[in-house]
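Good morning,

Attaching, inline, the backbone tokens for the sequence recovery test we're adding to the shared suite. The designed sequence is right after.
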């Protein structure tokens, strides 16, 4: 199946009709139908059955559709890269980060980098760690920043700092009178924190056992930033990373968790892909920005 035929197949699968698919691709219906017929001829089997004006995918079409989407995504990535090269964007730096470092560290790093290298294109993606790993492997990101260093062997993790936990309190909560909180203070409270089998959840569970404290969550989250809305709605206290700039969120009182665990801030790269000079310069800025941000956290504490 050729690239254009692949594009037509995916469009018809998504749209369900020739008319809608042709509109999506901005081509005529006869041209699309002809491309589809050529694809079926080359494959040697039918992709769609014509039923009352609609196209019903055959079992063969349904089976190959996921692979077709993956191939299409790869081709689109190739198109973006060739466009970057054609437009002279050889100095493209791609960084993928989980939400806390994306909000707390990357703005500072990008600002310093931009001041020194105004002609280099920057691209930022905020993503969970599994997606960051996939992007590093595929070359869709050169650098990653995440709050975990327990990674597959093909991903190098350089720990550039560590961060503790913060407690987010809703308006009117009695614990707001305290300047810092401990795990013992949170016993019996409605708690919002990370789902199990994540690095921060593991660290909290280990610390709770060490301190003889039993905590019970009423709401599990997968990314810390999602806790803000729940706390603002009065659903409980959030136990989350201290890296995000929580003071920017209205209606929250932020208190440090005393004697709590810490987990790493790691700079990630692929062991199988070399960094460009621009990537190396951005890596230096991320290291410096992380150090500055964490120093500011310690000074406030």
């Amino acid at each position: 199946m050729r690239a254009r035929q692949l594009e037509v197949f995916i469009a018809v699968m998504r749209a369900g009709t020739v008319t809608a698919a042709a509109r999506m691709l901005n081509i005529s219906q006869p041209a699309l139908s002809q491309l589809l017929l050529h694809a079926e001829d080359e494959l040697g089997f039918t992709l769609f059955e014509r039923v009352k004006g609609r196209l019903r995918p055959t079992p063969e079409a349904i089976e190959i559709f996921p692979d077709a989407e993956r191939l299409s995504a790869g081709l689109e990535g190739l198109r973006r890269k060739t466009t970057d090269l054609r437009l002279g964007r050889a100095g493209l730096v791609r960084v993928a980060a989980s939400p806390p470092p994306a909000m707390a560290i990357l703005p500072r790093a990008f600002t310093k980098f931009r001041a020194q290298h105004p002609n280099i294109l920057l691209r930022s993606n905020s993503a969970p760690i599994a997606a960051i790993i996939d992007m590093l492997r595929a070359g869709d990101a050169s650098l990653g920043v995440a709050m975990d260093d327990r990674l597959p062997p093909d991903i190098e993790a350089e720990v550039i700092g560590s961060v503790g936990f913060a407690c987010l309190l809703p308006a009117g909560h009695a614990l707001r009178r305290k300047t810092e909180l401990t795990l013992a203070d949170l016993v019996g409270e409605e708690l919002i924190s990370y789902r199990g089998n994540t690095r921060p959840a593991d660290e909290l569970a280990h610390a709770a056992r060490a301190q003889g404290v039993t905590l019970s969550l009423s709401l599990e989250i997968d990314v810390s930033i999602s806790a803000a809305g729940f706390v603002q709605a009065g659903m409980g206290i959030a136990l989350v990373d201290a890296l995000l700039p929580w003071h920017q969120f209205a209606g929250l009182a932020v208190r440090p968790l005393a004697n709590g665990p810490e987990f790493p801030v790691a700079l990630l790269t692929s062991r199988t892909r070399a960094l460009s000079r621009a990537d190396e310069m951005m890596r230096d800025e991320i290291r410096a920005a992380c150090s500055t941000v964490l120093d500011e956290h310690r000074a406030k504490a």
